[in-house]
Design the sequence.
């Protein structure tokens, strides 16, 4: 089941990457980043069957950091929305040249 | 039985992952994400990571997704039914590139000398014995509070910083 789980993790990671690159809604891009983190978690859990329990401890840390990242990222999105009245990333062009 | 369950969960998770990317409304996207997270939790159970499966459902599918839902509702984005994918040509190119990435990863896993050749069974029996002895929580708690105690404390501080940062960023400016 190790191989199948790793392939599933690769597929989920690719789908998440596609979402980050192709969508314009900042919140959906955030969701797709969570999808990528989740794919990596799945790979770590699968490897922990072969290598040792440490993989599951790392997953615990990744989940905590993901929660912190979601809280701060969504706060940033709220504060940008106050300014631009949209969450479409094409509208955020202050740092573009 | 476990293999059949694995393929059911895998199919649901990949299908709803595409749902996250392709759904028109943000709320639909979010509900697909909850379904993905729940089926990945099922796969965690099949891989004998019971504590992580519980945490996945409670923290990820429960708390973090509700936070996303709050923000979508708060910003009133629930009525945004236009699909905001980039243009068709760009989307197709990106799909090809990410598909090629998945293909490369899969050949590295399945192919000769790949990660799939790791002998999972040699360690899995020892791990199962430890799991029976210490229980699903104890088996993670023991390394977490001994070898990983410094990262554990740092993660606690990180959460505190994130709470303060989120409050400062999202609060209305007082003039």
Sequence:
């Amino acid at each position: 089941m190790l191989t199948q789980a790793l392939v599933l993790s690769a597929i989920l990671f690719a789908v998440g990457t596609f979402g980050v690159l192709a969508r314009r809604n900042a919140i959906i891009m955030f969701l797709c980043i969570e999808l990528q983190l989740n794919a990596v978690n799945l790979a770590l859990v699968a490897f922990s069957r072969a290598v040792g329990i440490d993989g599951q401890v790392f997953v615990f840390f990744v989940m905590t950091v993901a929660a912190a990242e979601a809280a701060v990222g969504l706060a940033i999105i709220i504060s940008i929305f106050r300014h631009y009245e949209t969450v479409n990333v094409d509208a955020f062009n202050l740092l573009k040249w | 039985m476990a293999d059949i369950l694995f393929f059911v969960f895998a199919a649901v998770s990949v299908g709803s992952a595409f749902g996250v990317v392709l759904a028109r409304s943000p709320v639909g996207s979010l509900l697909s994400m909850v379904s993905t997270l729940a089926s990945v939790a099922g796969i965690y159970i099949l891989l004998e990571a019971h504590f992580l499966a519980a945490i996945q459902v409670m923290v990820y599918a429960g708390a973090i997704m509700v936070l996303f839902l709050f923000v979508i509702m708060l910003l009133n984005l629930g009525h945004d039914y236009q699909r905001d994918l980039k243009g068709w040509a760009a989307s197709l190119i990106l799909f090809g590139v990410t598909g090629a990435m998945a293909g490369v990863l899969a050949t590295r896993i399945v192919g000769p000398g790949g990660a799939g050749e790791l002998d999972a069974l040699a360690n899995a029996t020892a791990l199962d014995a430890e799991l029976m002895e210490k229980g699903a929580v104890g088996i993670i708690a023991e390394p977490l509070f001994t070898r990983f105690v410094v990262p554990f404390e740092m993660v606690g501080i990180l959460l505190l910083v994130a709470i303060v940062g989120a409050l400062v960023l999202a609060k209305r400016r007082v003039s």
